[in-house]
Amino acid sequence: MSDLYWDKKVETMSREDLRKLQLVRLNETLARARKSLFYKDRLPEKLNDLSELQKIPFTTKQDLRNSFPFKMVAVQQEELVRLHSSSGTTGQATVIYHTKNDIDNWTDLVARCMYMTGVRRSDVFQNMMGYGLFTGGLGLHYGSERLGSLTIPASSGNSKRQIMLMKSFKTTVIHITPSYALHLYTLMKDEGIEPKRDLNLKIAFLGAEPYTEETRKRLEELYGFDAFNSYGLSEMNGPGVAFECKQKDGMHLWEDHYILEVINPKTGEVLEDGEEGEIVLTTLTREGMPIIRYRTGDIAFVYPEACVCGRTHRRISRIKGRSDDMLIINGVNLYPMQIEEVLMGIPEVGHNYLIEIDKVEYLDRINIKVEVRPEIFKGDLNALEKLKYRIADEIKSNVLVKPHITLVEPNSLPASEGKAVRVIDKRKK
Amino acid sequence: MASQVTVFVENKPGRISRITRALADGNINIRAITISDRGEYGLINILPDDPDLAEKILLNRGFSVSRKEVIAIIMDDKPGGLADVAEHLNQSNINIANAYGFILQKGKNAVLVLEVDDYAKAEEIIRQGGFHTLSKDELHNI
Q: What pTM was estimated for this model as a whole?
């Protein structure tokens, strides 16, 4: 095994060989998928060229919901060993089923990602994501064990214990949400712990919620670790679909397991590399539940150039937003995620906000409601006004639209547990 | 040192009645109350006889509450009483962030409440000027 790559042959395979492999695997996938009720009559017999994929209709989130519970399953139920499910807050839950080989492939992909960022057998990995139906916890857990790191299944919450674990076992790698990382830092400060001096953290995987480049840099400075972006969605296993290499410049999407397309979300037309659009993915090795041309809803672009790290798998940009929630504010296109990234990076705000779009005197206005929680309230009017200006300024510099900030009483916004509605467009009334 | 309880409120009808009723139910006596208004929201400053209990009651009702040390100066209830205190403070370069007052016994004495940046220094200077500042217990027992 080479020092740089988990799987050198695959990771550095020539584009031509990669495309050949994709065509073979795509035809195998089509054959498997036809065994499911959903895909039975939707797919051609055999494709002679990858470009013919464009003739196959897209699969949507709604298709997944309509297929509940088993219509997209392509194997006998006894072949299935695991399922993961979405929370289903916005409709029927979507369920993804895995065979033993599916779990095996997923695990290998996650190990490949972790290895790429520099994780080795000698590392201690503390997984601070929730275990359970959510794929983030188990996905990285299995990947880390495959890689051979000492794995601590800490799961989320219980900050004091998290800190104790980090100290006791000299944790070097963590998997954490960025807002929790910011919160944890303030707790460490209260306990007199200086992460750079008292802990051994080297690498962090930040995930499960949007965050800005500034937040990443801030966390890197506070903790002294290297933080890596990743991309994954439960429909495509979960974590391990795309990950940054040490260049931290775009996420390599593993094209031996997925076909990557970027489309115009309105017309469905396939776009060139470099053009921004919706990511569409096709599984190439999935047995339990193959998914063909899945519209992820995620907006990004593909880097046209090759990466200096030597990996040939193309890179995708940061996810800019979701195709279904683009907002037009006085003619400017923006995604709520761009605002959320900023808000979550401000510790006084965290998850306690609501974005409202309304009209004031014929002009669109972004009104952001932020709860003044007891922890941040010091009885100081000036501090509150400063916080308002700081939030507005940071958003203005990121999305070029100046929002109105409304401070509200604690517990007056919808609870932030799970996926609460954080954006309300009042103009639609 | 006297202690003031500050509550964050949105500018909506019924906030003051909710807060004062909650304190009344807890048998809290309010010595003075002021409002700092910022349009959409404001701060309600309350000088209660029992600040510890008042803070607890309001926190339990889900409000964001903060405690602040303030200086309560007792002065004569007569024309020029306040001017005497203010002149002395002005000479001593003490910056006043907020001030309010209330009468204790009509024609006899009144209380001036001050929010200052450096209250330890301020209190020392006020005492040197021959004025009497009320302690938490004194404020409780008046």
A: 0.80
Q: Which residue has the tokens 């700081």?
A: A390
Contact B38 A412 (CB under 8 A): no
pLDDT at B76: 84
Q: How far is CA A333 from CA A321, A400, B114, in A?
A: 11, 10, 50
B64 vs A381, A385, A409: nearest CB = A409
How many CA atoms are closer than 13 Å to the CA of A62, on its beta-carbon side?
Answer: 2
Chain B nearest CA to A419, separation (Å): 23
Q: CB A411 to CB B62 under 8 A?
A: yes
The DSSP string of A72-136 is: T--S-GGGEEEEEE---TTSS--EEEEEHHHHHHHHHHHHHHHHHTT--TT-EEEE-SPPSSSHH
Residue B101 has phi, psi (to 5 degrees) of -145, 165
Cα–Cα distance for residue pair A229/A231, rounded to 1 Å: 7
B60 close to B90: Cβ distance less than 8 angstroms:
no
The residue of chain A with its CA nearest to that of B60 is A374
| Contact pairs from chain A to chain B, CB under 8 Å | 45
Largest Cα separation within chain B, whole Å, is: 44
Is the pLDDT confidence value at A226 over 60?
Answer: yes
Can you name the residues that pair with A281 across neighbouring β-strands?
A: A260, A294
> A365 - beta bridge partners?
A358
Mean pLDDT across the stretch A202-227?
A: 92
- Report residue A89's pLDDT band, with 50, 70 and 90 as the boundaries: low
What pLDDT is stored for residue B2 in this prediction?
84
Instruction: Kindly report which listed range (A88-92, A285-289, A371-375, B101-105) carries the lowest average pLDDT score.
Output: A88-92
Question: What is the interface pTM, i.e. ipTM, of the complex?
Answer: 0.85
Residue of A374, A379, A381 with shortest CB distance to B38:
A381
B6–chain A Cβ distance below 8 A for any pair? yes
